[in-house]
What does this fold into?
Amino acid sequence: MIDLNADLGEGFGRWTLTDDDALLSVVTSANVACGFHAGDPSIMRRVCELAAARGVRIGAQVSYRDLAGFGRRSMDVPPGELAAEVAYQIGALEVFARAAGSRVSYVKPHGALYNRTVHDAGQAAAVVAGVRLAAGEAGLPVLGLPGSLLLAAARDAGLEAVPEAFADRAYTPLGTLVPRGGPGAVLDDPDAVVGRAVRMAAEGTVAASDGSAVAVAARSLCLHGDTPGAAGLARRVREALEGAGVRVEAFA
It folds into this structure.
């Protein structure tokens, strides 16, 4: 069983990047940009309405405040400030999710914040504090890299920690993502992406950049919405997973 998630709502004003309509016909969870790396109120509202109409789970994709850098520049944000900014983003998306008859069901950091919380305990704790601030005692599940300090902080705070894998990103032998900008960091061969997705879901492993097998005990599989041809690739991945006997559905 595997959840398929994609980053959606990544636009601003007249600029659009992700094919939200097409991807929402394939994925089971939508990571919606909340305005800090991409997204604006109109886009957030539209994506929530589309997701709710199609029964797709809505997640808040929170980020550093970095529209110019698309949230992919690491920033030294004080923990209290970061917690408040995470809560702010979740709260903004919750308004549109509820208006569409749904709700925010989980939280996933984006870009530099995601990678920073793999190894930075202070930033990881701040993200979790922001989730608690926005969601209260009920909390929200948090998506992150297996073995990351983010998932450890979420568990320590009593939140559900959901391990995630990436079919279209290269892995180091340590199980972390090869930094963007590095050679081969993003896979552009559709056949390779489909094959990796099936292997991850069915076997729980992936080939690292040095050819070694790395364990990836993932409950959710991410397909980047800004990849050229993302919707068609996502459809191929889902068909291949189901063809291999993997049930595709949102995590409980």
